[in-house]
Amino acid sequence: MMIISGQILTIDGPKNLKDVTKLDWVLSGTIPTRIIDIQKTTVKTYKTFSTVPTLWVGKDTKMKTIHGLMNMKNKDEADLTRPYTTDIHVAASIKKSDEELIGYIFKLANGSHTIVVENCEVECDA
Asked: 11-52 pLDDT, tens per residue?
């Protein structure tokens, strides 16, 4: 449900999560849309992926693939498909932070619930 670390794909290219602001144009799948609201929340538990180490998402955040939602297996590996490409088998892990992290939840103008982050589609406000 939230993104903690990573780069969001905007119409001007990738942008660091912390630099994204309201009214920025981002990609929702392949469609550009504006961010109309950003909520921040604190979190200590998050999910990471071996092939995309800069992407941290809330532990219950859904990841979309071209085959549907990402399949987590045994909570330590996942099948992750970057949009419009092939399956990538990755190690995924749930981690806990000693300190609180900031998680960002985005609301998009077109009503979509997905946003492209680090070449992966993330459910951002569902």
From this structure: 998 899 999 999 999 988 778 999 999 999 999 988 887 777
Q: What is the pLDDT of residue 126?
A: 39
Q: Which helix (H) or strand (E) holds 15?
A: strand 13-16
| pLDDT tens digits along 50-81 | 777 888 888 777 766 545 556 555 555 565 55
Q: Which helix (H) or strand (E) holds 64?
A: strand 63-65
Identify the H or E element spanning 102.
strand 87-108
Six-digit token string for 115: 């946003």
Any idea which residue has 């109309």 for tokens? 36
Strands 120-123 and 13-16: unpaired
Geometric angle at alpha carbon 107, from 29 and 99, rounded to 5° = 100
- What Rg, from alpha-carbon coordinates, does the chain have? 14
pTM for the whole thing? 0.75
CB 12 within 8 A of CB 111: no
Q: Which of 123, 103, 111 is nearest to 4 (CA)?
A: 103
